[in-house]
Specification:
The protein has 396 residues and is α+β, with helices and mostly antiparallel strands. The chain contains 10 helices and 26 strands. The strands form 5 sheets. Strands 6, 7, 14, 15, 16, 18, 19, 22, 24, 25 and 26 form an 11-stranded mixed β-sheet that branches. The chain has a 6-stranded mixed β-sheet with strand order 10-11-9-8-12-13, with helices on one face. The radius of gyration is 27 Å and the shape is elongated.
């Protein structure tokens, strides 16, 4: 049994020599003046899973809730953080409270670089007839429609995945894009008047939430040579094909491997909704990309981080756990499925991780206290002014 002491001013600590050595050897707490000083989540874990007893100044044994109640006013998310700590420790891995002076393993590369090639535009002689309430346009030139479909995979020529029909339909992103970059005219079918791409985008912004941000991200990837199509079937805004993809190059080219979801900096999503979109993408073996447009330097926040974490390494022909003698791999932020998170928050946490040479993990506690982990990595899209991140399901 490990005996711990609690005092409202001093905190939680172990002073018996045997307990001090046992805790230190398993990387619990901090050694101070011959004692081990513990964080609340460490003591709570030791109580439940390491046969520890916490006694107050009168020698009375304290329960989990009694001890936690002394800290929860200053640390209102204590239970969520404790649960993340518990899960990491249950895996036989070391986890420590975040400290500013720690630097991690990934100082040389904390991002992934994506390829890019310039969009080679060619002017087309066509008019796009815009249907305002349907949010689609139809080209008046069949040859131009076939050309932009085959060359750029813009619009839908004929019936989707069927070789019949000659009509070319374009969604509102594609309609604006061909007007701006291929010289097509947009005609409003209700008024028979020409409408500029900027006017159309302003009209759309009144009907479609975050229309401008969605279009800006769409255009950003298109101008880097990517094919960007609807991601509706996969619970995201877009599906992405790398430069060179075409609808006429056979089955190997038809299946996208990435989906892209736009997360405007003003928007906040329930963690459960955000996680659902990532899970859908992973369920169909696609990489989930999150885009945060319009971020400025002054938007970044100095947000709190819960833990730094360690995994395992190969040593002596076997996998052994890393310890604080090694450099940590991740900063870990503990959240629950019923919290909200925003684009600015995610970008700020990733920026902090990058500065420390660490990767970012989110641990999500669900309503059954099970934990799901996601790893976030920044993407470098050459020439882009926006922030993009890959999000992958992670198993410690």
């Amino acid at each position: 049994m490990i005996e711990l002491k609690f005092d409202g001013k001093k905190g939680i600590w172990a002073s018996e020599a045997e307990a001090v050595e046992k805790l230190a050897s398993d990387f619990f707490g901090d050694r101070e003046s011959g004692e081990i000083v513990l964080m609340p989540e460490e003591a709570l874990y030791l109580m439940l899973f390491r046969n520890a007893v916490v006694r107050d100044n009168d020698g009375k044994e304290m329960g989990f809730n009694e001890l936690a109640s002394h800290f929860v006013k200053k640390e209102p998310r204590l239970f969520i953080r404790y649960n993340a700590y518990r899960d990491w420790r249950d895996r036989g891995l070391v986890v420590r409270r975040y400290r500013l002076n720690i630097h991690g393993k990934h100082s040389k590369k904390t991002y992934k670089k994506y390829p890019a090639q310039k969009f080679e535009s060619a002017k087309i002689d066509a008019k796009a007839y815009w249907y305002p309430d349907s949010l689609f346009s139809v080209l008046d030139n069949e040859d131009a429609g076939m050309e932009i479909f085959n060359k750029y995979w813009l619009g839908q020529y004929g019936v989707y995945k069927q070789e019949r029909g000659k009509q070319s339909k374009l969604d509102f992103f594609e309609t604006i894009f061909i007007a701006k970059h291929l010289g097509a005219e947009i005609i409003n079918v209700e008024t028979s008047k020409k409408i500029t791409p900027l006017r159309l985008l302003k009209d759309l912004a009144r009907k479609r939430e975050y229309a401008k941000q969605l279009y800006d991200v769409y255009e950003d990837w298109r101008l880097k040579g990517y094919v960007v199509k609807s991601g509706f079937k996969f619970g995201s805004h877009f599906r992405i094909y790398f430069p060179g993809a075409s609808p006429v190059k056979g089955e190997d080219w038809i299946h996208s491997k990435h989906v892209l979801h736009v997360f405007p900096k003003e928007e906040k999503l329930l963690i459960s909704e955000w996680s659902r979109a990532v899970r859908v993408a992973h369920g169909v073996k696609k990489t989930f990309i999150l885009g945060v447009p319009e971020l400025k330097k002054e938007d970044y926040l100095d947000l709190p981080v819960d833990f730094v974490t360690y995994r395992r390494k190969m040593g002596g022909g076997a996998w052994v756990r890393e310890t604080p003698k090694d450099k940590p791999r991740y900063i870990l932020v503990a959240v629950s499925e019923d919290e909200h998170i925003g684009g600015v928050e995610l970008a700020s946490l990733l920026n902090k991780a990058k500065e420390m040479g660490l990767n970012l993990l989110l641990s999500i506690t669900d309503r059954e206290t099970s934990i799901t982990y996601y790893e976030l990595k920044k993407i470098v899209l050459p020439g882009s002014k926006y922030e993009y991140y890959e999000i992958e399901w992670f198993k410690p």
